[in-house]
Write a structure and sequence with these properties.
Elements: E1 2-4, E2 11-20, E3 24-27, H1 28-32, H2 39-46, E4 50-53, H3 60-75, E5 84-88, H4 100-107, E6 113-117, H5 123-136, E7 142-150, E8 168-178, E9 186-193, E10 201-202, E11 225-226, H6 228-249, E12 259-262, H7 267-277, H8 288-291, H9 298-309, E13 317-324, E14 328-335
Parallel strand pairs: 5-6, 5-7, 12-13
Antiparallel strand pairs: 1-9, 2-8, 3-4, 7-8, 9-14, 10-11, 13-14
Helix pairs in contact: 3-4, 6-7
Length: 348
């Protein structure tokens, strides 16, 4: 699906960012004591050096709420100003209810609509698209989008192929209505899915097809399982294809992009996309080595850090592109137009 801005509606403006990561750091050297792996092996194949792990008493709503609070502070607004809360997560607190109502309660958004979406690592882009649609259709004026995950709860720590990859974290954004004459906002989206790839990356059990109370399920089926080779091939192709389609649809070149923030999954995938798209490496921000793959939290977490590092400046045109289980993908072009240009905050 391609959606392109038409210029005749309220403009959805990316107005603020926030992020949060848990305190506990799990390094590659820590993993050497847990599974048959080495720091050198992990870094050479993924680019990851450490990741964060949620405390035993932290659920995904706790991480989401911390990131949401930072975004609200950076926007200079309160929860009462929020009309909708969208939480992108595949590791919600419960099977039901959704996590978003817990976040809306926590920020004091007592009158907001609140719902979850789950497209795994592509979820952040899908969430931004939902916020864009709500604002530009005049259903809502201010939307809080949160991408948050506690993937450590769904990792088999005896599986060295997957336990080295994932971490916990949360990122958030405020998308608000603005005058089309004074804001650029979102220029377009490219979204899609190939359901034939579902078996390549999934948690086989715990849902309605194989519920947790079925006593015959092997314990390993409650954890992330991945066909690494196929996911790598898919991601390497779709990151480039999606970004290229979007740039063509909005009639822009990669040279006009100020900053690219890709999904933080594997440095080799990122490097491949950078090379194929022809974007200058200094225009690409990644924090993969510090946080690993935090799924739907990875892009907003990187955006918040880019802001704090001075790599993301007010007025910058940002290309965000990601992929995830499903197999899904998404990309968007948006101008970063903060309500409070001097706002910043540490993600750590």
């Amino acid at each position: 699906m391609i959606a392109v801005q038409n210029g005749h509606r309220p403009r959805a403006r990316l107005a603020a960012l926030g992020a949060y990561v848990p305190e506990r750091v799990l390094t590659n050297h820590d993993l050497e004591e847990m599974v048959d792996t080495t720091d050198e092996w992990i870094v050479s194949r993924t680019g990851i050096r450490e990741r964060r792990v949620a405390a035993p008493d932290q659920a995904v709503s706790d991480l989401a709420l911390a990131a949401a609070g930072a975004a609200l502070e950076n926007a200079g607004i309160s929860g009462e100003d929020v009309d909708a809360v969208i939480c992108s997560t595949c590791t919600g607190d419960y099977v039901l209810p959704p996590t978003a109502p817990l976040v809306s309660l926590g920020i004091g958004a007592s009158r907001s609509m609140a719902y979850d979406l789950n497209t795994a690592c592509s979820g952040w882009i899908y969430g931004l698209n939902q916020a864009y649609a709500l604002v530009e259709s005049a259903v809502a004026r201010t939307v809080l989008v949160v991408g948050a995950e506690v993937l450590s709860r769904f990792v088999n720590w005896e599986d060295r192929a997957t336990c080295i990859l994932f971490g916990d974290g949360a990122g958030a954004a405020i998308v608000t209505a603005s005058d089309p004459d004074t804001a650029t906002g979102f220029l377009g989206f490219d979204l899609g899915a190939d359901g034939a790839g579902v078996p390549e990356l999934l948690v086989p059990a715990g849902g309605g097809r194989r519920p947790a109370h079925d006593g015959d399920i092997p314990p390993g089926d409650f954890f992330i399982q991945m066909n690494g080779r196929e996911v790598f091939r898919f991601a390497s192709r779709v990151m480039v294809d999606s970004a290229t389609r979007l740039l063509e649809a909005v009639e822009m070149s990669i040279d006009e992009v100020d900053l690219m923030i890709p999904h933080q999954a594997n440095i080799r995938i990122i490097d491949h996309a950078v090379d194929r798209l022809g974007i200058a490496p200094e225009k690409v921000f990644n924090n993969l080595e510090r946080y690993g793959n935090t799924s739907s939290a990875s892009i907003p977490l990187a955006m918040a850090e880019a802001r704090d590092a001075g790599a993301l400046r007010p007025g910058d045109l940002v290309l965000q592109v990601g992929f995830g289980a499903g197999l899904t993908w998404g990309s968007t072009l948006v101008r970063y137009e903060p309500l409070l240009p001097a706002a910043s905050g540490s993600a750590a």
